Structures are given as structure tokens and as C-alpha cells.
Amino acid sequence: MRVAVVVVHVKVVVVVVVVVVVVVVVVVVVVVVIVVIILVVEVVVVVILVEVVLAVAAVVVVVVVVVVVVVVVVVVVVVVVVVVVVVVVVVVVVVVVVVVVVVYCCCYRVLMVLTVG
């Protein structure tokens, strides 16, 4: 009887660990992809801004103001995107933890009924 309970616990813990590892890997991949996209967009914006500054050297003051405004907007957008990503990741982790706990409880009950009777 005790061995059956231990076996049930081990099976449930293995399932929970596998689910948590898969979810963590998926979340990390999503965050890395989003960060790479943000960095590529920033590089493109910087390249465009440098070309504009070189092409319009006569109106340096206007270009500097535009560059500062665009950089500030890009930084604000990046910060907002990062905050949104962090919030989404936290929400996903909380949901996954709740689902894992519910699945653990259900699996434990089912396995106990099947093994113990």
C-alpha cells in the first residue's frame, strides 16, 4: 500500500516537472524572440537616423531635435514592450502553476483510486 502511494507520488512529480520545464523553455524562447525583434528594430531606426543626419547636414538643429524625439519614443516603446512581456510572462507562469497544481491533484486522486482502490 505504501509503495503504491510512493509510486503515485513519483509519477505525478515527474509529470509536473516535465510540464514546468516545457513551459519555462517556451517562455524563454518567446522572450528571446521578442528581444531580438526589438533590437533589430532599434538598429534599423538608428541606421535610418544616421543617414538622415548625414544627408541633411544643413539643418542640424532640426535633425537633432527629430533624432532626440525618435530615440525617446523608441526607448519608451521598448520599455513598454518589455513591461508587457514581463507581465505576460508572469501571468503565464501563474496560470501554469495553477494548472500544474490542479493537474497534480487530479492525477494524484485518479492514480490513488486506480492503484489503491
List its traits:
single chain; 117 residues; mainly alpha; 2 helices; membrane; transmembrane transporter activity; ABC transmembrane type-1 domain-containing protein
Topology (elements, then pairings):
Blueprint: H1 2-55, H2 60-115
Helix pairs in contact: 1-2
Walk me through this protein's architecture.
With 117 residues, this protein is mostly helical. The protein has one domain (2-115). 94% of the residues lie in helices and 0% in strands. The protein is built from 2 helices and no strands. Helix 1 packs antiparallel against helix 2 (60-115). Keywords: Membrane, Transmembrane, Transmembrane helix. This is ABC transmembrane type-1 domain-containing protein. The chain crosses the membrane at residues 12-45, 52-78, 84-111. It comes from Elysia marginata. InterPro entries: Na/solute_symporter.
Shape: rod-shaped
Distance between the termini: 10 Å
Query: Overall pLDDT, averaged?
Result: 77
Order of helices and strands: HH
Oligomerization: single chain
What Rg, in angstroms, do the CA atoms define?
A: 26 Å
Organism: Elysia marginata
Protein name: ABC transmembrane type-1 domain-containing protein
Keywords: Membrane, Transmembrane, Transmembrane helix
Transmembrane segments: 12-45, 52-78, 84-111
